[in-house]
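Predict structure. Chain length: 246.
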Amino acid sequence: MWKFVLCLAVFQVILAQQNKEIPEYIKQCRRDDPELLKCFMGSLEHLKPYLARGIPEIELPSVEPFKMNTLALQLTDGPQGYKITLKNMEVFGASNFQVKSMKLSENGEPFEAKILLPKLKIEAKYTSSGVLLIIPASGGGDFHAVFEGCVADLTGKVSTNEKNGATYLHVDSLSIVINVDKVNMMISNAFNNNRILLEATNLFLRDNGRIVLDAMQSQLQKKLAMEFGKLANQLLKNVPRDWFYV
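Prediction complete.
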């Protein structure tokens, strides 16, 4: 009798797990789908509106804006070289991505993905020091940038772990390389609105936006990879692998 009751209880637990409602932000794929890769790409696209507004039930913050702390840039050389520090950075447009291609991790090989971000807008507070175009340009204000036609190549490795009888994925490492088609940068509310300094700085940023991007790109890519890795793992630790594909 007790064996029967125990078996019935175990069966009910298994059945409850199988019938557990899949969250609306998960679009499931089937293992036997001949276009499984295409389905996974669609699942990522399905996440976009949820990433934009956040998923409170799993404590996943909104990526609009996507927030970062500090970038320090050395833009010109020499003892009076021009330096800029960006703080309280907010990146808009990260949820409006398009998955162009994907390669799954197999046999210990890293996964790969190519993501198109049509437009990224960056707002930040900045401080500067040094000489710019022979003019002392130390000060601070608001920094604005628009990057258009961004293509991000993602590479990373994942592992699995078991918890409460379910298998979960974990992103162990992630790297991002971003190529930007068009760059536009400017500052405002700086130098007590001294017109000469504002115009000189904005002239430099307009003519040398690509140089500024090159100076910030390495740090920006590392910070984006770190923050996106955190977001991915916040999602993955709350969603069993079998919820993604059945």
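Summary: Helices lie at 2-18, 36-46, 48-53, 195-207, 209-236, 241-244.
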